[in-house]
Write a structure and sequence with these properties.
68 residues; mainly alpha; 3 helices; 57% helix
Length: 68
């Protein structure tokens, strides 16, 4: 099964809606724990996961947000 953007489009998001609420909770938990290297692993997983679905731009946007 193909998961590219054309074959597997994501549902539209309403204005103000968060597309990945569980992911944002997880990011907050990782930030608050402050375990060395854990954020690097999370960033690598984000890059890989979004690249698999042709969403590299979205991964970079999220990574820029969480590393500020």
């Amino acid at each position: 099964m193909c998961y590219c953007h054309e074959c597997y489009p994501e549902p539209p998001v309403r204005k103000g809606e968060i597309r990945y609420p569980n992911l944002l909770d997880h990011i907050d938990a990782v930030k608050s724990r402050g375990i060395p290297g854990e954020m690097d692993v999370l960033i690598a997983v984000l890059r890989y996961g979004f690249a698999m679905r042709d969403r590299k731009h979205l991964a970079e946007k999220m990574i820029n947000t969480i590393t500020k």
